UniProtKB/TrEMBL annotation:
Pfam families: Rrf2. SUPFAM superfamilies: Winged helix' DNA-binding domain (SSF46785). PANTHER family: TRANSCRIPTIONAL REGULATOR-RELATED (PTHR33221:SF13), WINGED HELIX-TURN-HELIX TRANSCRIPTIONAL REGULATOR, RRF2 FAMILY (PTHR33221). This is Rrf2 family transcriptional regulator. NCBIfam families: rrf2_super. Transmembrane segments: none annotated. It comes from the Bacteria.
Length: 166
């Protein structure tokens, strides 16, 4: 899994705290997390394309969540960044080499591919149960009051009113 999933999840959790009609520029989110702006922008564009984030262009542009945080899961974010294709792709190497099976002997799925498919379903199902609201609640529960105050002050200084959305 790429760093982009982590960055996108952190950015999405940050966007929960945005006041109505306000957004954050990719540059601000990149600065906040001390990551490259171009790479953060790429993750935000993927979230926007997936309908998770809403982008607004221009001088008063930025990003905000496109739908309620209760309807956005970690799987939604992962799929937006990594895609929906399985992480494991069986290439049927059991048919290779000096003792390889004949194609006709491979009527049943490869046991290794089957095991990975079961694990991937469990992984995806688990991510689908964790929403941004769940994550935000954990952040609030574990943060020190002064840290929350610092974040609030930062958000107040960095958010901007959004112009027309696209």
């Amino acid at each position: 899994m790429s760093k982009g999933v982590e960055w996108a999840a952190h950015a999405a959790v940050m966007m929960i705290a945005l006041p109505e009609g306000r957004g954050l520029k990719a540059e601000a989110l990149a600065r906040y997390h001390d990551v490259p702006t171009a790479y953060m922008a790429k993750q935000l564009q993927a979230l926007s394309k997936a309908g998770i984030a809403q982008s607004s262009r221009g001088a008063h542009g930025g990003y905000r969540l496109a739908k309620p945080a209760t309807g956005i899961s970690l799987w939604d974010i992962t799929a937006a960044i990594e895609g929906h294709a399985p992480a494991f792709r069986c290439t049927e190497i059991r048919q290779n080499g000096p003792c390889g099976l004949k194609r006709k002997d491979c009527r049943n799925p490869c046991q290794i591919a089957s095991a990975f498919a079961v694990a991937e379903r469990a992984f995806r199902d688990s991510l689908k149960t964790v929403t941004l609201v769940d994550l935000a609640a954990q952040v609030l529960q574990n943060a020190r009051p002064e840290q929350l105050s610092d974040v609030g002050n930062w958000l107040e200084s960095e958010t901007m009113p959004l112009s027309d959305t696209s």
